Automatic annotation (TrEMBL):
The protein's name in its UniProt record: Sulfite oxidase
Amino acid sequence: MDGHIGRVSGPARVAEPGEGIGLEELALAARNHGLPLEAMRDDVTPPGLHYVLTHYDIPAAAAEGWELTVNGLVRTPLTLGTNALRSFPAVTHRVTMECAGNGRARLSPRPVSQPWLVEAVGTADWTGVPLRVLLAEAGPAADAVEAVFTGADHGIERGVEQDYQRSLPLAVATGDDPDVLVAYEMNGCPLPPQHGYPLRLVVPGWYGMAQVKWLRDIDVTATPFTGFQQAVAYRYRQSADEPGEAVTRIAPRALMIPPGFPDFMSRARVLRPGRVLLEGRAWSGRAPVTAVEVSTDDGRSWRAAEVDPPGEHAWAWRRWRTWWNAAPGRYVLSVRAGDAEGHVQPLTQPWNRGGFGNNAVQRIPVLCLPPD
């Protein structure tokens, strides 16, 4: 680590016992925002309500003059402006995107980073060119194994100065189930600046760290990428000195729209007795969601909720709902999802140093008032 950089960029750490969220984490939380859970009523999330995580600064970008290069082990290197990319047949996919650190702030001890609760998610219609089409145009060599994606955002992380870079195995990059997209539109409009304008990667089913924003270069390589965001960050680790396992696909999760109405400061929920609709969304990047269960007694008992049948959007969240006859008293509401591969949300989360993949069940304390 450069001695000067080390003064402003320290190593990853875990909070000390009893340590509250500090000013650095609050500064991150002010730059990055989650989805207001009531916005899950919409099938598609408006761009301003979709979660945002930006590692460094939002680059100054203009579509005019922006170029995407495809280089490395390819037959025909490409340099494509935004107009050239729009000349390819457009594809639109509805994709639920979730930050790998969603739920981190609820872990104990807490990994010190962006302090997400459960709201780091959103669903959008992304339009662009399938990555496989661009790679077919370039012609990867027979010994190519990965595609490395470089964004225009630049900064320092844990003492390493870097552009934001991630890679995908070539089999994923060139697959068509699902299409990985080089996207230039979100919900039918040009990408907003915070969502990667003018170009970004969209990788259905993978956590958000794979969805490189402000995309400017694709490099096809014969060896696995070992850059910081691949080999150091975004690994499931129990200790700092182990290599860990790569973070890839989204674990199943269901979230409930908090019922009733909230207290301003605590966000504690209050409702009136009677028949109450409990509803929300469920998704998984590993396999289709097959079941959602709801508890009104803090996980001691569960009952099945109704889940919308699979539709045309295989990589988007699905609506679930059930009714609850609420009587006066205090309750803790919970919801959990399971998928076709047998993954079910845990009641308590296995810990890891990065706070990644935390899909423990949501818990919502509720006060049901006496009758008027």
